[in-house]
Amino acid sequence: MSRRQPPPSVRPSGTDGSDFSYRMVVDSRYTKVAQGKGRLWKLLVAQAAVQVIGVLWLLLLFLQQRGLGQLAVFSVLVGFICLAIGESGRRCNSKNLLRSYTVVASIAAILSVAQIITSNLLLQIRSGSFGAVSSNPEAIENGRLLISVVLQFYTIMTTLTLIGNMSVKRAS
Question: What is the 3-state secondary structure (H, E, C) of 18-55?
Answer without folding.
Answer: CCHHHCCCCCHHHHHHHHHHHHHHHHHHHHHHHHHHHH
